């Protein structure tokens, strides 16, 4: 991807949001994510 586009993924620590975030990163997007609760964030 020549010009990186920025994408916001809400619910990035959920199942769907996490998989979407990973796929967008693979495709070259610059990704920002929001989460509901910091205590639910895993290190993976």
What do you see in this structure?
By secondary structure, this protein is an alpha+beta fold. The protein has one domain (6-37). The chain is built from one helix and two strands; from the N terminus they run βαβ. The chain has a two-stranded parallel ribbon with strand order 1-2. The chain is elongated. The chain starts with 5 loop residues before the first strand and ends in a 10-residue tail after the last strand. The mean pLDDT is 88. Residues 4-40 form the NmrA-like domain. This is NAD-dependent epimerase/dehydratase family protein. Pfam families: NmrA.
Percent strand equals: 15-25%
Helix content: 25-40%
Specify the overall morphology: elongated
How many distinct beta strands?
Answer: 2
Which regions are unreliable across 5 or more consecutive residues at pLDDT < 50?
A: none
Radius of gyration: 11 Å
How many alpha or pi helices?
1
N-to-C series of helices and strands: EHE
Domain tally: 1
| Neighbour order of strands in the largest sheet | 1-2
Mean pLDDT metric: 88
Main β sheet profile: 2 strands, parallel
How far apart are the first and last residues' alpha carbons, in Å?
A: 25 Å
Structural class, from secondary structure content? alpha+beta
InterPro entries: NAD(P)-bd_dom_sf (IPR036291), NmrA-like (IPR008030)
Protein name: NAD-dependent epimerase/dehydratase family protein
Pfam families: NmrA (PF05368)
Domain NmrA-like: 4-40
